[in-house]
Backbone:
DNA sequence: AGGCGACGTGAACGGTCGCTAACGTGAATG
DNA sequence: CATTCACGTTAGCGACCGTTCACGTCGCCT
């Protein structure tokens, strides 16, 4: 039988398709056979690449969290002015949310389905990412306390992550402009 | 055996506990036996009150959508000025999101697990609710097109619905103020 | 008193799911 | 050329899950 040349690695192919399926049906709503079928192999072949279904989810969510944190740290290193940093963070996060809506969806929907150690790891990475935002907000004088800044940061994430609910019908660049403007205004309006 | 006096109706008790469990573990992550155990009965007793597990979810989501739409229509009837209407809508939605975080979570996470007809019904109700916001935004001159207004409305929902992610550590009234202010600013900042 | 309906139980069913086992194969390695 | 290894296959296992069934038990109505 002719072997189909695999352009991207099988692992990444599986991760991509699994993300799409998890986003649409939820972790427990997708079967191993379903994921296999989506990449053209069948069922148990996945166990050549991942130790378990939960392990697959873990790699997906850890990857997302690491990517976000790395991007945040990069921006933090580039900008000393907190307002500039906030703008860079907004641009970075908005871009990610618009480019990878499935990952965004899975990240905050299926975190509870992770095994304990992986969940702790993801939560730690997420917390570090949030703290970058919190620090910028406080230093910019846009939040009266760390607590308030945390609420504001989560609110900003919710705003930018609304992408999966509305992007279906709208151009990505148009949405990017709207979300960026709204997020910036929301954060700057927050009273001290 | 002594019969335990049931204060609220069994149906509502089941709906409440099921919402909590669905919010935490997802629809497919909760078993019929688990829901039963949460209300003190076991497993199949639920079928005395609901036709199926999907039927239970359907009643939950339809109830939420109807409540939101009714509240939106009520505000729309009370306010002729679109900016006043927006403020009333923000107050209404924020209050709901803060008071019922589990329902908010289930609503936009498990819609995909509804049977087709119920899903269509919920989507229709949601769309009608969104259209109230869209109409107010356009009439207020805060959106250049219906499309832009829809993106803005979904973004506002994402902001206000961020509650379940951050309220755990913050007082509800404090969070309400922050979310209200941020949402108002976000919507008013959106350029024409 | 008697029957009925609401509500609950435990047992059992068919189906699906995650995962393992046993096996096959083609390409690189020595 | 023989071996190994990466990567797939199908068959089957144990567990769980949604649902149904047969049955029991109250409280209420006539």
Residues:
């Amino acid at each position: 039988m002719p072997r189909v040349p695999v352009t991207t690695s099988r692992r990444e192919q599986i991760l991509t398709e699994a993300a799409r399926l998890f986003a649409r049906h939820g972790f427990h709503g997708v079967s191993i056979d379903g994921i296999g079928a989506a990449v053209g192999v069948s069922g148990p072949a996945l166990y050549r690449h991942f130790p378990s279904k939960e392990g697959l989810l873990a790699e997906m969510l850890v990857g997302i969290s690491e990517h976000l944190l790395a991007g945040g740290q990069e921006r933090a290193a580039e900008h000393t002015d907190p307002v500039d940093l906030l703008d860079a963070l907004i641009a970075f996060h908005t871009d990610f949310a618009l480019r990878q809506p499935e990952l965004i969806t899975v990240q905050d929907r299926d975190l509870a389905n992770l095994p304990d150690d992986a969940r702790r790891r993801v939560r730690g990475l997420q917390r570090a990412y949030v703290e970058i935002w919190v620090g910028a907000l406080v230093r910019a004088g846009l939040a009266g306390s760390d607590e308030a800044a945390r609420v504001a940061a989560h609110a900003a994430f919710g705003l930018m992550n609304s992408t999966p609910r509305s992007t279906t019908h709208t151009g990505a660049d148009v949405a990017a402009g709207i979300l960026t403007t709204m997020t910036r205004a929301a954060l700057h309006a927050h009273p001290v």
